[in-house]
Known about the structure:
The structure holds two protein chains of two kinds. Chain A is α+β, with helices and mostly antiparallel strands. Chain A has 18 helices and ten strands. In chain A, strand 7 and strand 8 (about 130-140) form a beta hairpin. Chain B is of the alpha/beta class. The longest helix of chain B is centred in the C-terminal third of the chain and has 19 residues, at about 230-250. Classes of the chains: A alpha+beta, B alpha/beta.
Amino acid sequence: xxxxxxxxxxxxxxxxxxxxxxxxxxxxxxxxxxxxxxxxxxxxxxxxxxxxxxxxxxxxxxxxxxxxxxxxxxxxxxxxxxxxxxxxxxxxxxxxxxxxxxxxxxxxxxxxxxxxxxxxxxxxxxxxxxxxxxxxxxxxxxxxxxxxxxxxxxxxxxxxxxxxxxxxxxxxxxxxxxxxxxxxxxxxxxxxxxxxxxxxxxxxxxxxxxxxxxxxxxxxxxxxxxxxxxxxxxxxxxxxxxxxxxxxxxxxxxxxxxxxxxxxxxxxxxxxxxxxxxxxxxxxxxxxxxxxxxxxxxxxxxxxxxxxxxxxxxxxxxxxxxxxxxxxxxxxxxxxxxxxxxxxxxxxxxxxxxxxxxxxxxxxxxxxxxxxxxxxxxxxxxxxxxxxxxxxxxxxxxxxxxxxxxxxxxxxxxxxxxxxxxxxxxxxxxxxxxxxxxxxxxxxxxxxxxxxxxxxxxxxxxxxxxxxxxxxxxxxxxxxxxxxxxxxxxxxxxxxxxxxxxxxxxxxxxxxxxxxxxx
Amino acid sequence: xxxxxxxxxxxxxxxxxxxxxxxxxxxxxxxxxxxxxxxxxxxxxxxxxxxxxxxxxxxxxxxxxxxxxxxxxxxxxxxxxxxxxxxxxxxxxxxxxxxxxxxxxxxxxxxxxxxxxxxxxxxxxxxxxxxxxxxxxxxxxxxxxxxxxxxxxxxxxxxxxxxxxxxxxxxxxxxxxxxxxxxxxxxxxxxxxxxxxxxxxxxxxxxxxxxxxxxxxxxxxxxxxxxxxxxxxxxxxxxxxxxxxxxxxxxxxxxxxxxxxx
Lengths: 519, 262
């Protein structure tokens, strides 16, 4: 069966008269006018839009549909839209949404008003064979508000498609055109001054292979600065944990760029900002560690031995209290003079036009040459570090390898636009698998440490029974078990990364003989 | 997905009126509902103003597949579809008997529709033959309207022994009193003693009311045409009970795309 068809009406047309004239031989039955408020939702980083999904509420129901498609995928009755997916009622809708939105908060992006006048076309038996809806969309309830769109919908009734086809033909003969292109989603957002996809923490810029390396570095760093600034504004509102996360990643990338895109800026400048961003980076360490623990609350509870499971509750109350303190501390620091000065000086530096004579050894080198050299060098260090782990079995070296991999990944992402997308993405994916393994290992280690620290703090506070320590012990034990599993998977994951085939790909793409300063 | 048969081996007991109103009420709660009018008289089909016609008639229905899909009509009510009756359904028993394994054919015919609906209601003709076996095989629950008379009770007894002999689970057969006339002593007495004499009796009787008969004039479910009426309330009460039974085994995940996109 065909879905509903949207027709454009000629300007100034009398809808009612048109419907009556073009619906012969059917009897037309007009139904009650319906006004509804449509609210569009997405995450701050447009996760739904990026997957071509539209989430909107209308008349106590929440719907999910594909962008530019009519078919609604899922609907749930809902009185108010929850901020987080975890608060949704269980079911397919929640599963679908969770896969895309994850831990991000949903927020209302636009509100539009729909006024629809439904008509039914009846056959001789009085049975509805076609439904028509004239719909006007406005940005506010006021009738004075300009209509963003006005359409006549033709909705076939199952089992009566011939009648719908006949009516559609009549509409077309009367000069109506089928509207296939526009999705009111865009008009609705535009009316609310929103641009879909306007924010993403993913690196999105195009570098020119021949551009000077110092200029390329500035392009990368300007993008990261923007991510830092945008997220810093939102951190204060405490909407979700991902503003802090994106902020931290951008700071870390900034530090990696300063350290890894070597000798493109004067030594003094590089050293000064490396120190500054090390300071900015550590501001949020404690908050992020606590966020990670709290995000895993349900999973953690499931890991605790059943006999002490309910005794773990005070731990999370304590973590929430600590989180609240850490959050206030971060807000305080982000408002500090030192932070403001760092960001201001950094912005000024990044916006200063380049000098004709390069100020550092690699500043005047072509971006692609420096990119190749740095990436290949980092790749070799990572393989070397990994091999040492395989030989010695030393877990401390996992941390060293993780840092090498992180720097390599950042370098590859900074310069990805200079290389064939398919090849570089294959390499990034391979690297990502290794990083996931290393990251999991490190996360578990950090979480164990955080929990042991918390236990220590709790032991000095009054009113705690021994049962909470048994519960924390049980959890730490479970995490250590998980860590062992992750550790056992390392050898195989690393073998994939350091395999000759992968090395060959790295060599082909990045190995270069061009002489460059080693600094 | 659940299948509910409205069945009686006695005619004129208010089967179709119950099927039409219960299917409407189910759809109104948001369940995607299909009413299958298996009765060649096609009264349910008439109530919904649909032509009593199936693609390739009873023969096509028995073959199953896409023809059945194509025969489905949307009623004038949201979430409610109808598989119309066809006069050729009068020969359904004969046609089923010609098959190798006739008892489970209806399950096979309805299987492809199961993904699309939360609830399938069967408005059954009066039968206690191979079609009845098909109905008991496909239905998760059966609802039997019973006029509170001794003759009706006797017929119901026949039905239960028919089911027991063929190993159908009689615990899934529910009864409600239909066309109840409170002025009649026999009706009152039989209803009063029902908990002792009958199993699975629902607490919501449907009285004998002119409004129900008038459905033939209005050609709409009475719960729609006269929502405040006694008849409407009786069906609503009955649905409240039936709904609990239908939803008892597992929660229905009702996701109902409706209307137009904005």
